[in-house]
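Q: Hi! First time doing this. I have a protein sequence and I read that you can turn it into a structure. Is that right? Here it is:
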Amino acid sequence: MDIQDIRRAATTIKPYIKRTPLQHSRSLSERLGTDVYVKFELFQRTGAFKVRGAFNKLLSMSEADRRKGVVAVSGGNHAQAVALAAADLGVDAVILMPENTPKSYLEATRGYGAVVELTPTIKAAFDRAADYQNEGRVFVHPFDDELVIAGQGTVGIEIVEDLPDVTDVIVSIGGGGLASGVAIAVKEQVTDAHIWGVETVGADAMSQAVAAGHPVELPAITSIAKTLGAPFVSERTLNYVRKYLGSVTVVDDAEAVAAIHYLAERLKVITEPAAACTLAAAERLKDKFGPTSKVVLVLCGGNTSISDICGYAI
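A: Yes, that's right. Below is the predicted 3D structure, encoded as structure tokens:
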């Protein structure tokens, strides 16, 4: 995949998504000692970036495949994205979600009209998806799909359009679809830019895969950053991360929660731990930035319930 695939995705999905703002943050710039910009992808439809990939996948399907319906696996944002895209395009959708999925995600996914089926674990959900594929449904993978990755990469297209001299982008990694797409889009336009990935302890499948040299399966997701909770990454996304990313920083939940509080107080936005961790990573990486750097934090989602926020202690 290259930048042309992502440009095609941008054209394909344009009528169905929001073009989210990129804004300079004085408070973050002072905190990190460099120019910091925020990509507010949490203002996207469904509150997260995932609709970009979902729409690109479904819009690229044949009419015959759309009539068969789709199936997806997700513990959060991908579920809502596929449900919304399917509703907008008149496609029947079944979403497989683990039983520990927060109630707010379940309600939102059902609210978009999808059939939700609960499974004991996320691994069981992937296993069950194979049954639906055998029945003829098209599987919309949350990250291991070139069309999905290209859709997520449109975030990177917008970043470079708004900030052509971007030097650094910090982006969250779950399964690696967003990071892969953004990295390809940015690096193929601004070759000297640095892409920094971030995970949380207990949802760090990519950093473990990089260390091992191959995908590994996490025994469980123990981080509060549930939307980073891919139990494994794919060979595809691992290869993209190896090729395009400078590093993967792993922060702990406490750092992510502290970042949530700061972003709420200073930027007036409530993010998911999976998005706030980019600020936590920036704190760890700030020695990499200079006075002329232009650093972008991708706030990829904001689907955290008030009850969850109230339960997060610093």
